[in-house]
Design goal:
The chain is mainly beta. The protein has one helix at residues 2-7, and strands at 21-30, 36-46, 52-63, 66-76, 81-85, 88-92, 95-98, 101-108, 111-120, 146-163, 166-182, 189-194, 196-197, 203-213, 216-227, 230-235, 241-248, 251-258, 261-268, 273-279, 282-301, 304-319.
């Protein structure tokens, strides 16, 4: 079971955890008309003070050129959370999240979502002994503060959700799935994601964070660009490095280098909103995320530009280190 969970990070990792633990999945869905971007974050908090399951809903809507961000935190009892491995699914109340569909029945103050969206043509990451998942060899360690998994870089969505009584169509739409688990999010990090580029097969995921490790911190990089069926991975464990970093308010740019490849990333977000995040397993911290950002990318091979594109409906989180 250990290796199965290592190779399949979507599986529930915390069955033996009793305290100071969280686990959350991140399902991103963009409607057919691209006027609604929906991030669904189901999860569980095994904290001593406030153990509970949850579904956090993050919406970005663009109606008549007016952008609106909203979040809703839907609490459940821990016994409302259940899971199965084969086929993978988690259930929270009447809501089901799997690799092949999402079924929702959420009703909280100000929000009602009901319906089913099917998931097909998922794009998992390539795997090897050295890289069983996005964390590479660090995935084998059992003392990391936070673990990250990418379930699908790109996939198709089909279905309809009733959002506050109005239908939202997801026909031949696009989605993305990842997850996190452990004790706490990193103290400082930048996370970027988009799979709405001009080339439909393109997807980008990027994370650069302060990682606690054996009493000190190091800067950990994990980034993947998929393009024309090929995976370009830039990570600390494969000797990729950051050549340049520039972070401002709702803006981040990087130049990554690995071997003969160089990747330029420039991300910006007009709006952002607070989401709940874990600290020692308890959902008491806050992060700010934009869900309607833009990411410009340039990929070079031996200084020759081989690909340039712009991604929209981007998730952007910039968490700066707090002053001591």
């Amino acid at each position: 079971m250990y290796f199965k969970k290592l190779l399949n990070p979507e599986l529930y990792q915390g069955r033996k955890k009793k305290k100071s633990y969280f686990e959350g999945w991140y399902y991103k869905l963009v409607s057919q008309d691209e006027k609604l971007t929906l991030a669904l974050i189901p999860g569980i908090s095994k904290s001593l003070n406030d153990p509970h399951a949850f579904i956090q809903v993050f919406m970005s809507s663009n109606i008549l050129g007016s952008l609106t961000l909203k979040t809703f935190y839907n609490r459940f009892e821990t016994h409302d959370f259940s899971y199965q491995d084969d086929p993978f699914s988690i259930k929270i109340g009447n809501n089901i999240f799997s690799k092949t569909y999402v079924s929702l029945d959420i009703k909280v103050e100000g929000l009602s979502i009901k319906g089913k969206v099917n998931i097909s043509s998922t794009t998992p990451l390539k795997k090897s002994i050295w890289m069983p998942n996005i964390m590479g060899p660090f995935g084998y360690l059992n003392f990391m503060e936070c673990y990250h998994g990418v379930v699908s870089m790109n996939h198709m969505l089909n279905g309809t959700l009733q959002l506050n009584g109005s239908p939202v169509i997801f026909n031949e739409s696009k989605g993305y799935i990842e997850k996190d688990w452990g004790k706490s999010f990193p103290r400082a990090y930048v996370w970027l994601q988009s799979n709405h580029f001009n080339r439909k097969d393109t997807s980008l995921m990027f994370s650069y964070a302060d990682i606690p490790f054996l009493g000190f911190y190091f800067k950990g990089l994990i980034a993947v660009l998929t393009y024309q069926g090929k995976e370009y991975r830039f990570a600390t464990y494969n000797r990729a490095r950051i050549k340049k970093e520039d972070i401002k308010e709702r803006y981040a740019s990087y130049i990554l280098k690995k071997g003969k490849y160089l990747l330029e990333i420039e991300a910006s977000s007009e709006n952002e909103i607070a989401l709940a995040s874990p600290k020692q397993g308890e959902m008491i911290n806050q992060i700010k995320e934009g869900l309607s950002g833009k990411i410009n990318i340039k990929l070079f091979e031996k200084q020759r530009l081989i690909y340039e594109d712009t991604g929209y409906h981007a998730g952007i989180e910039i968490m700066k280190k707090k002053a001591s």
